[in-house]
Amino acid sequence: MANESRPCPCDIGDRFDYGGRGQEVQVGHIKAYICKPSASTDKAVIVIHDIFGWQLPNTRYIADMLATNGYIAICPDFFVGQEAWKPSNDWASFNDWVKTRDAGKTDKEVDVVLKYLKDQCGAKKIGVIGFCWGGAAVQHLMLKNPHLKTGVSLYGVISRFEDKHSLLHPTFFIFGEKDNIIPLEQVTLLEQKLKQNCKVDYEVKIYPGQTHGFVHRKREDINPQDKPYIEEGRKDMINWLNKYL
Questions:
Q1: Which of 67, 85, 95, 213 could tie 35 with a disulfide, CB 3.0–4.6 Å?
Q2: What's the chain's average pLDDT?
Q3: Residue pair 76/46 in contact by the 8 Å Cβ criterion
Q4: Catalytic hit among 140, 212, 226, 236
Q5: Is residue 5 part of a domain?
Q6: For 137, which DSSP code?
């Protein structure tokens, strides 16, 4: 790992002033943020947050963006009431902290959310996107959940599922070229394994000069040199969902 002192450098460009257009709801045993488009739709996207949790304004910003593009967007609390990571926490304790929050154990929550989306929102076609910790969860879900039509994993930590590549549904993998915690050799290996084992559509894309978290954590208005790549990443994500949902 390139940066042992800060194993997950996501805290860039926060939108602390962003309130969100949606509302918080109770979905079974978990809380969730949901935002719906102005026109009715049977398409929905589950948004899986990063280590900073379901209430992070940046993640809600993306959920709202999905809603403006015609999707019911829901961001559940996949930590199920456990505290999210804070930038002020001691990074030396991060590995112990993350062990208690397994991105590969999101199935129970996803099943509850799927039922809610179908029963309460009339959703018939449902996809999933996720960032960092959530990106790893997306890869896990694309390997085993038959009810999710497609997934977009944004800088998901590959090392969590590096031996599993038989995806059930079309999956798009987004990575930054300068990501400190996901070396490019890991991305290359992922591509090789997918080529050998994957029977469904997939794409792996690396965005030049971008660091971990760039699609949802970088502020396009304060990083002019990054703006084209932030916008491209978001557009690619929407285009992928449009294609497969």
A1: 67
A2: 92
A3: yes
A4: 212
A5: no
A6: H
Catalytic residue among 132, 165, 169, 216: 132
List, in sequence order, the alpha helices (H) in the chain. Answer: 57-68, 94-99, 107-121, 133-144, 184-197, 214-217, 227-244
pLDDT tens across 90-129, in order?
989 999 999 999 999 999 999 999 999 999 999 999 999 9
Q: Is 179 annotated in the active site?
A: yes
The answer to whether residue 113 sits within a structural domain is yes
- pLDDT given for residue 6 in this prediction: 57
Lowest mean pLDDT among 36-40, 88-92, 167-171: 88-92
**Residue 7 belongs to some domain of the structure:** no
In a domain, 111, yes or no: yes
158 φ, ψ (degrees, to nearest 5): -60, -35
Q: Angle between the 57-68 and 227-244 helix axes, to the nearest 10 degrees?
A: 50
Domain hosting residue 76, numbered range: 23-244
